[in-house]
Amino acid sequence: MRERAATDDKVETEKNTLILWRDTTMMKFIKNFRKDENGAVTVDWVVLTAAVVGLAVAAYSSIEGGASELTADTDTFLGKQDPNL
SS3 for 23-40, per residue? Predict the structure, then answer.
């Protein structure tokens, strides 16, 4: 019975050590992750690029409507012209 109790205590101690090591390792990882700024520059560029693309799409939408109208007006004007004059 003593051997079983000693074995159970040893297993319990190993489990606690493993949990403590895992928790300590995770805390170190989180602290290092918060301090590391290497990915921050990448995120900045991704956000900046997305903003530029968004502005380009908005500008295209605005210009495209006006260009279509101008093209139609030009077509109507040229269709009314007499080439023999």
Answer: HHHHHHHHHHHHHCCHHH
Amino acid at 84: N
* Dihedral sign for Cα atoms in the order 26, 27, 30, 31: negative
pLDDT tens-digit readout, 38-85: 777 888 899 999 999 999 999 998 898 888 889 999 999 999 988 887
Give the integer Cα–Cα distance in Å for 49 and 24.
38
Write down the pTM of the prediction: 0.43
Amino acid, res. 16: N
Residue whose entry in the numeric block shows the structure tokens 């279509």? 68
